[in-house]
Design goal:
By secondary structure, the chain is mainly beta. About 5% of the residues lie in helices and about 60% in strands. The longest helix is centred in the N-terminal third of the chain and has 8 residues, at about 20-30.
Length: about 110
């Protein structure tokens, strides 16, 4: 369910504050998309398909988590999946001491 499609960010909750896709675009100037491929690579792009950031990803803990690494050098995030359907992906990870909840929709 998680591979073979482009996931477009819908909202982010950070430190209890919700940000919609429109607010993210207004603040960042772009809508972020993520593509997790079967070969273990991941690509993040903006809504125009520009400025790609590439890395690696792999499932963890019986496919309830996925780890992304190699984006911006050697950073890595361990993401815990809370919802995964054919059209929705929601996960959280810790950003320092803040919990970030990310919600994506399939494009």
């Amino acid at each position: 369910l998680i591979t073979g499609k482009t996931w477009v960010i819908q909202s982010v909750n950070m430190s209890g504050m919700d940000f919609t896709a429109a607010e993210i675009i207004a603040q960042e100037g772009a809508e972020f998309q993520m593509s997790l491929k079967v070969d273990g690579t991941v690509t993040y792009t903006d809504n125009m398909g520009l400025n790609p950031m590439n890395g690696k990803w792999q499932f963890q803990v019986n496919e309830t988590q996925f780890k992304v690494s190699g984006i911006d050098g050697t950073n890595s995030d361990l993401n815990t999946i809370t919802q995964l359907t054919a059209t929705d992906l929601e996960f959280w990870h810790m950003d320092g001491s803040d919990k970030m909840i990310m919600h994506y929709k399939a494009k």
